[in-house]
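Retry 2 of 3 after timeout on previous attempt. Resubmitting structure tokens to design endpoint.
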């Protein structure tokens, strides 16, 4: 039972839960970016390049054919169009994360630059200041 209790304590720590939430949101963000690249960004780029659909770009290494036993052998292809889509996905996600971190760092710098307002003096400090000033005035 000790190991189960220890695992429960580990799994319920704040940083583990924060990481889990970040991974889930990151996966959802990845799906949004993939859809954006595939459905919004790549069609106009393909149109500008002469109607090329990047997902269909492939290099055929071996043509499809029939095996000696009569079964169909599928073609062997390098699907570099899918790689282009994935690379564009990555660049967009990386840029979005870069901009988010840059904004966070900018906000942190603003917090650091703004000096904290000095605390109000306590009653004792005010009284001691008055006594000091009175003694200096007598001297």
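Retry 2 succeeded. Sequence:
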């Amino acid at each position: 039972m000790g190991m189960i209790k220890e695992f429960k304590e580990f799994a319920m720590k704040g940083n583990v839960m924060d990481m889990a939430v970040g991974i889930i949101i990151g996966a959802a963000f990845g799906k949004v970016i993939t859809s954006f690249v595939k459905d919004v960004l790549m069609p106009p780029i393909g149109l500008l390049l002469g109607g090329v659909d990047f997902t269909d770009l492939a290099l055929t290494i071996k043509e499809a054919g029939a095996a000696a036993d009569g079964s169909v052998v599928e073609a062997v292809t390098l699907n570099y169009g899918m790689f282009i889509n994935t690379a564009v996905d990555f660049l967009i996600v990386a840029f979005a994360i870069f901009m988010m971190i840059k904004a966070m760092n900018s906000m942190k710098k603003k917090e650091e630059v703004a000096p904290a307002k000095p605390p109000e003096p306590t009653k004792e400090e005010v009284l001691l200041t008055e006594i000091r000033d009175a003694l200096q005035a007598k001297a």
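Attempt log closed. The mean pLDDT is 83.
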